[in-house]
Task: inverse folding
């Protein structure tokens, strides 16, 4: 049975499997990110009932949005003025919730948890951010890698999303094997002890404070982390470079730029940006040069410093509010 959903999925799979990472990361040099965002706007305005009503209420005629200046004047959407006002199906293309194959739930940190439908095409786009970390930082394209998902599983977005993205990398040919103990420490230790030695590196993916607890608890149990060549993918909380160095020392890491990476994301948009060896190097220099950090960020305490693909997520700033399209 062929449908529009299956055609979109096949197209996304082909693009993901056939396109090298470097090609993806260099696309913005030949394609204007703002024009790509404008094209996405018109596609959404033509197919999503909730957005059509929202634009009408705001007095916006999509036909009048032709260039970058027009796009910049579009009203921003939020949970309050958009997502929470409409039925879930109305927020989907053609008003069809069944056109999405997965629904995740946000943490509810701003109040009530929200449902976020998505398709495999959405996940494959986000997988590029994981691919950049696994390829450029961990060389997982040439090392047998055990990816241990330590994010909470269930309906919450982090664990299932991460597991899916890692499996997609394996389908592309990366020698990655995924296992999902979630935030069950006993199961994590069993997985690491029994399976870790069969691989050239072990990547722990999870919430930074929890991963540190795993490392410290493992040491107390007599686990020697160094032979496992442990790497970390983290999300959910900012941490200092001193913290990164400490965790690295306890796992035998000698090069923090290539053994850990933080990802920046949200439940609705997935992963927006990720640390790279370059961004970590800059951040570590700023950590050692607080005057420069204060001049750049207004305070010596460092935020996460990440890089993004402007064709994957188009960023704008409205005062101190960060807006993104993608």
Result:
């Amino acid at each position: 049975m062929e449908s529009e959903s299956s055609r979109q999925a096949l197209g996304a799979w082909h693009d993901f499997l056939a396109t090298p990472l470097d090609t993806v990361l260099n696309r913005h040099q030949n394609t204007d990110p703002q024009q790509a965002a404008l094209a996405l706007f018109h596609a959404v305005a033509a197919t999503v009932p909730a957005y059509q009503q929202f634009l009408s209420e705001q007095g916006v005629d999509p036909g009048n949005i032709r260039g970058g200046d027009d796009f910049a004047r579009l009203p921003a959407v939020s949970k309050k003025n958009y997502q929470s006002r409409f039925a879930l199906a109305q927020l989907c293309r053609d008003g069809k919730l069944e056109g999405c194959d997965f629904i995740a739930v946000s943490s509810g940190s701003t109040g009530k948890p929200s449902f976020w439908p998505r398709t495999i095409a959405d996940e494959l786009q986000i997988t590029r951010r994981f691919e950049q970390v696994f390829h450029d930082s961990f060389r997982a394209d040439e090392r047998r890698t055990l990816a241990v998902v330590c994010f909470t599983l269930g309906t919450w977005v982090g664990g299932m999303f991460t597991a899916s993205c890692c499996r997609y990398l394996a389908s592309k040919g990366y020698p990655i094997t995924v296992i999902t103990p979630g935030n069950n420490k006993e199961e994590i230790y069993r997985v690491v002890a029994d399976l870790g030695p069969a691989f050239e590196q072990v990547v722990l993916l999870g919430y930074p404070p929890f991963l540190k607890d795993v490392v410290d608890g493992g040491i107390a149990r007599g686990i020697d982390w160094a032979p496992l060549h442990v790497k970390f993918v983290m999300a959910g909380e900012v941490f200092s470079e001193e913290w990164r160095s400490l965790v690295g020392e306890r796992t035998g890491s000698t090069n923090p730029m290539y053994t850990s990476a933080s990802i920046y994301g949200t439940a609705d948009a997935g992963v927006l940006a990720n640390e790279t060896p370059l961004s970590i190097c800059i951040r570590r220099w700023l950590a050692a040069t607080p005057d420069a950090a204060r001049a750049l960020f207004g305070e010596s305490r460092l935020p996460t410093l990440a890089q993004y693909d402007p064709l994957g997520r188009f960023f704008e700033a409205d005062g101190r509010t960060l807006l993104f399209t993608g």
Remarks:
- The mean pLDDT is 94.
